[in-house]
């Protein structure tokens, strides 16, 4: 588990009493706090397996099941895989002191074989990711609009409707294109896959952080992925769409246009996984007890708001903090903050669906919130990091086909294809149909069937019956009628002719792309244009750049296309034809600027100091920010203890050698002449401030600290020059001793996240 600080909150509250052993440092087989090295009894003393879990299901059910396979070597003897104690694991068995190794050395052979086979194929997409455990809990009586009395009227899925039920979940976040070892902060869609271990079986909601998708039919997926992955001849570039084959494909696939607008926007550069929306993307169905169905779109909304990084920052993070998003998730959970999302639904029936000017089965379309509001129905909390990355994050396997009664599929052709692909890909990754028996994938719900054998089978199925019907075993296991919880597919009436085509209703590729563009703020539009300049600027073939601008972007918005053309060396486009959309509709929910709640929780603040800092500034500011949930880190030239002017000391958490402004959300410089004078003489603190300014981050200085800002020369920025407090586009400065007002103004600037009303282009950072 990676963390800068020890866990502060009590994780035992999420576990059974059995695992909340006072002697145990964490609540499972971790070392004892007294250092005796004895592992807890949790793994051996717990009776039963998840498969015959007979107690009440609760949020800890999955953890209890996992406890059965957790292993901890603290205080134990080294053994072979087969339990034989090993006397020497450093020297192979040799014929004579300087002689060759002997074949009979079973320990050498076992150790080496295990090592040689310890990698499995990485996911063909979404290879790089991270994950966390938590729970989902429905709200009591959520408002689902006037059309329905309550949620039970539309779905029988208890996981969504029973407020007394906390369903354990495991969530994996990922980038799509890069391989397992690529950087976190690349421009890409992010995967947001949630496995709900419900009492009615596993439900996997395998979504993304953007609501539309690139293509309309699963048949096109291999082409899309081949085009965007490194080019097959030279294996370049890694984790990037910015190359000819991707934009060649895109420019010939107008259906991609809407998604491209999202991918060029800040949505593709999330500040943190905990600050990212999630979407089920497809239209799904909810089904009630009477077998009636409505359509649904699923939305995850993060409590901390939806925030982005800026491009220059992301490229620096590739080198300076390439695990930025992965580490961000681990760190906050370990430091005691449990990220939270609301699950919301957009509900609409077939008649409403027919009224829309798009087809709800077309995954390149969203249902605008201006048409159907998102109704929050429950919350998800992530509160536990994995113990073992491979066992949990790498081996977790999702499948959109995993649904529970009350949740069903639509005929979206992308979704239909996914229902095949995920099972198939797991066979490739695990080499066996028994991937569902791997601990992280096992349901907590009971399971009994006649599936048998195969590579790595874990279950020991008793008896001689593995078929149905049977009389020898009373025909067990029994089928379950729908009214008693058996899954029944929604009885949709289908009447069609076999045909390989694309429905006419999937034809409009630009109306929603334009809606997205219209809904962006000025700076968000500029970010999209800048991103297009980078991406298409990397495309060598002019005709591809031209097709993107003339055939796609120009049909979204002429001004947008013209601005893109300017930066990539092609002629500006002509006005688009009359048949192209000209509407000026907007959906405010699409702009991230409208998704900024007034909070600074979990924001990471760098406090720049050197010896001789103002003691009161440091302690008052730190507590004011930490009280609001921010995480303050002291950054100095070197690690070690720093002394204040009045004798207080602080330990530097980070030094300039290893820390950069890109890893922080905001910067504050306390006073103290000696400290500030020293920093004015150093390049790193000035660069730190300039770079944070360039990335539109809140920066603040108090007392003599303002001298550091003067030394940096921030363009067009007003700084306090007497006793006043000045807050100018997120630059907060104060020369007086009114620390409370200063901290408050800084806090407000942090809550805004980025200050786009700056002109940082001239800043050399
Ligand atoms: Fe997919 C993985 C999300 C379309 C085929 N997909 C994968 C993951 C996510 C998504 C989050 C990572 C799961 C994990 O963390 O293990 N995929 C989506 C979304 C899509 C989508 C939101 C469109 C709505 N995917 C899609 C299509 C196909 C696939 C159309 C193929 C027909 N996806 C796969 C896959 C992966 C996968 C090849 C790779 C690893 C895996 O499944 O488990 O089967």
TrEMBL record:
Domain Catalase core: 79-476
Highest taxon in the source lineage: Archaea
Biased segments, Low complexity type: 32-48
GO cellular component, one term: cytosol
E.C. number: 1.11.1.6
UniProt key word NADP: no
Catalysed transformations (reactions): 2 H2O2 = O2 + 2 H2O
GO molecular function terms listed in the Swiss-Prot or TrEMBL record: catalase activity; heme binding; metal ion binding
GO biological processes: hydrogen peroxide catabolic process; response to oxidative stress
Region (Disordered) location: 1-98, 569-595
Keyword line: Heme, Hydrogen peroxide, Iron, Metal-binding, Oxidoreductase, Peroxidase
Record has Iron-sulfur as a keyword: no
InterPro entries the UniProt entry points to: Catalase (IPR018028), Catalase_AS (IPR024708), Catalase_clade2 (IPR024712), Catalase_clade2_helical (IPR043156), Catalase_core (IPR011614), Catalase_haem_BS (IPR002226), Catalase_immune_responsive (IPR010582), Catalase_large_C (IPR041399)
Cofactor(s), by name: heme
Residue spans of biased composition, Basic and acidic residues class: 1-18, 59-88
Pfam families: Catalase, Catalase-rel, Catalase_C
Record-stated family: Belongs to the catalase family.
Matching PANTHER family: CATALASE, CATALASE-B
Name of the protein this chain belongs to: Catalase
Organism: Natronorubrum texcoconense
Organism lineage: Archaea, Methanobacteriati, Methanobacteriota, Stenosarchaea group, Halobacteria
């Amino acid at each position: 588990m990676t963390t800068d600080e020890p866990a502060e909150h009590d994780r035992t509250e999420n576990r059974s009493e059995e695992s909340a052993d006072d002697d145990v440092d964490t609540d499972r087989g971790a070392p004892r706090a007294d250092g005796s090295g004895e592992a807890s009894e949790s793994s051996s003393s717990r009776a039963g397996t998840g498969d015959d879990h007979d107690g009440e299901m609760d949020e800890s059910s999955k953890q209890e099941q996992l406890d059965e396979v957790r292993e901890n070597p603290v205080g134990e003897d080294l053994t072979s895989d087969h339990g034989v104690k090993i006397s020497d694991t450093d020297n192979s068995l040799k014929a004579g002191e300087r002689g060759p190794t002997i074949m009979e050395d079973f320990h050498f052979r076992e150790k080496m074989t295990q090592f040689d086979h310890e990698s499995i194929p990485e996911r063909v997409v979404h290879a790089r990711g991270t994950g966390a455990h938590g729970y989902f809990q429905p709200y009591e009586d959520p408002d689902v609009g006037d059309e329905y009395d309550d949620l039970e009227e539309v779905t029988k899925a208890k996981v969504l409707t029973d407020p007394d039920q906390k369903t354990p979940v495991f969530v994996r976040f990922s980038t799509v294109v890069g391989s397992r070892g690529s950087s976190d902060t690349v421009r890409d869609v992010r995967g947001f896959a949630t496995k709900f271990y419900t009492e009615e079986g596993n439900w996997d909601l395998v979504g993304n952080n953007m609501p539309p998708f690139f293509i309309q039919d699963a048949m096109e997926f291999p082409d899309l992925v081949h085009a965007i992955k490194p080019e097959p001849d030279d294996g370049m570039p890694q984790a990037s769409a910015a190359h000819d084959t991707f934009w060649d494909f895109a420019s010939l696939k107008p259906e991609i246009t809407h998604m491209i607008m999202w991918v060029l926007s800040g949505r593709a550069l999330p500040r943190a996984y905990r600050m990212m929306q999630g979407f089920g993307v497809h239209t799904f169905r909810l089904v009630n007890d009477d077998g009636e169905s409505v359509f649904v779109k699923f939305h995850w909304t993060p409590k901390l708001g939806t925030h982005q990084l800026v491009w220059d920052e992301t490229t620096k993070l590739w080198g300076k903090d390439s695990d930025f998003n992965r580490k961000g998730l681990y760190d906050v959970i370990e430091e005691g903050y449990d990220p939270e999302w609301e699950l919301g639904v957009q509900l609409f029936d077939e008649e409403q669906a027919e009224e829309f000017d798009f087809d709800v089965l077309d995954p390149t379309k969203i249902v605008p919130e201006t048409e159907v509001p998102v109704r929050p129905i429950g919350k998800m909390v992530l509160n536990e990091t994995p113990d073992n990355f491979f066992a949990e994050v790498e081996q977790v396997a999702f499948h959109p086909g995993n649904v529970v009664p009350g949740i069903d599929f639509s005929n979206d052709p992308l979704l239909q294809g996914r229902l095949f692909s995920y099972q198939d890909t797991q066979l490739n990754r695990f080499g066996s149909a028994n991937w569902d028996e791997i601990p992280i994938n096992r349901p907590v719900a009971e399971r009994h069937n006649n599936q048998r054998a195969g590579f790595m089978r874990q279950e020991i199925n008793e008896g001689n019956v593995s078929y149905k019907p049977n009389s020898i075993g009373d025909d067990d296991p029994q089928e379950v009628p729908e009214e008693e919880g058996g899954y029944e597919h929604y009885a949709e009436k289908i009447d069609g002719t076999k045909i390989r085509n694309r429905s006419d209703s999937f034809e409009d590729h630009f109306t929603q792309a334009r809606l997205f563009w219209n809904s962006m703020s000025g700076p968000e539009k500029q970010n999209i244009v800048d991103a297009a300049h980078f991406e298409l600027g990397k495309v060598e073939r002019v005709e591809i750049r031209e097709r993107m601008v003339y055939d796609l972007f120009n049909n979204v918005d002429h001004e947008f296309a013209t601005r893109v053309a300017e930066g990539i060396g092609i002629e500006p486009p002509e006005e688009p034809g009359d048949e192209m959309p000209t509407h000026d509709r907007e959906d405010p929910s699409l702009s991230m600027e409208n998704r900024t709640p007034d909070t600074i929780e979990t924001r990471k603040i760098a406090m720049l100091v050197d010896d001789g800092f103002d003691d009161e500034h440091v302690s008052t500011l730190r507590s004011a920010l930490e009280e609001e949930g921010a995480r303050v880190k002291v950054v100095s030239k070197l690690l070690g203890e720093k002394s204040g002017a009045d004798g207080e000391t602080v330990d530097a958490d980070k030094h300039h050698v290893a820390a950069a402004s890109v890893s922080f959300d905001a910067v504050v410089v306390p006073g103290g002449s000696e400290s500030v004078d020293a920093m004015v003489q150093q390049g790193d603190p000035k660069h730190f401030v300039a770079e944070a300014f360039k990335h539109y981050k809140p920066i603040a200085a108090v007392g003599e600290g303002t001298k550091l800002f003067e030394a940096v020369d921030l363009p067009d920025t007003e700084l306090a020059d007497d006793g006043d407090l000045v807050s100018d586009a997120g630059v907060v400065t104060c020369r007086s001793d009114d620390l409370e007002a200063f901290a408050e103004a800084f806090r407000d600037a942090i809550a805004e996240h980025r200050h786009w009303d700056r002109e940082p282009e001239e800043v050399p950072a």
